[in-house]
Amino acid sequence: MKKVILVRCGEIILKGLNRPVFESVLVSNIKKALYGLGKVDVLKSQSRIYVEPESEQYDFEAAVKRLTKVFGIVSLSPVWKIDTNFEEIKKHSILMINDLLENNNYKTFKVETKRGNKRFPMESPEISRELGEHILNKFPSLTVDVNNPSFTLFVEVRESSYIYSEIIAAHGGMPLGTNGKATLLLSGGIDSPVAGWMIAKRGVEIEAVHFYSYPYTSERAKEKVMELARILAAYCGEIVLHIVPFTDIQLDINEKCPQDESTIIMRRIMMMISEKIAKSRGSMALITGESVGQVASQTIQSLAVTNAAVSIPVFRPLIGMDKNEVIEIARRIETFETSILPYEDCCTVFVAKHPKTKPRLEHILNSESKLDVERLAGEAVKNTEIIRIKPN
Ligand code: ATP
Ligand code: MG
Hints:
There is one protein chain. The chain is α/β, with parallel strands linked by helices. It has two domains: about 170 residues, VC0802-like, CATH 3.30.2130; about 210 residues, HUPs (Rossmann fold), CATH 3.40.50.620. Helices cover about 40% and strands about 20% of the residues. Strands 1, 2, 3, 4, 5, 6, 7, 8 and 9 form a nine-stranded mixed sheet that branches. The protein starts with a strand and ends with a strand. Adenosine-5'-triphosphate binds next to α5, β11 and α12.
């Protein structure tokens, strides 16, 4: 018997002729995610991937935890790989259930069998039935309940056979690196980390840009953003984070532009700078955490004026979502607790009391012409600090 991890892939199965490419990227991402835990073989077989550690001492719990964050994986199971032979299947099923009953007060079960190996002399229902009887004989405390069992013993009969009782959900999506690169405008809030995660889930590599206004925003606010990037890096791999000094620009806007237009002008300049950074890094789109109507700068009129500042596509995956839907994802991906830490953001420090909710582009362009935007943006890019953020 050998303990292995069974990995189920999702959408890449639909990829037809390109499927081998997607699969090999996924296999390489799995290897990267498991780096440092010990030597493993990662084997492809039909729509499955098997992770087989060399050592008996392998930390399966840590491996499973990391693999649930690899995009392209739909679910995982820690499984026992055994010879395809009914006596072996019976023997190891008993051992596995013994382990299970040690830690759980289970009363009912069922057996579910899949037979991929048609040369095996018994058919699936027969295997389930005979194995079920064998289990009932060995464990008098258990009864069969096919509708709502406390646990299911899954048996897969293939070249080798596999038994398991646990199916752990992962996030699905496409393997990272199969869909180019995009640049996330990462604030310290709840929304932008979720937005970045959603696009990364589609296989897009992510870089991040953060604007900070030292000394109006503190060193701790910057550390909070680095921590958010670190949480995202567990899904996205190392993230290049560009920290852009924004104080001079905000002071200039406050001095020269109408108060009720300052937020929208600030948002436009953030987009322009992000576009410059994206282009210099081979990134083909921007990502923001905006959602229609959430605040004054996210009315349709404001979004249109902000969008007009750049020419590359802007992805806004949260655009039609309610705040509670975003919070649900933030909790699931574990960014929420960090996002709600109370450090100030550059937007909130300089925020206008009554920002325009229906800005007109020509008015905004007129106000903006009082600033030397090209010079300001160029300076900011020049003074940008680049930090590589690795997962914990
Ligand atoms: P979030 O929760 O992501 O901060 P928000 O609801 O607070 O979003 P805004 O403050 O209007 O909304 O920001 C809208 C989007 O602009 C953010 O989702 C983010 O993508 C980007 N953004 C805002 N502030 C910054 C910043 N300091 N650095 C980088 N991007 C930012
Ligand atoms: Mg914000």
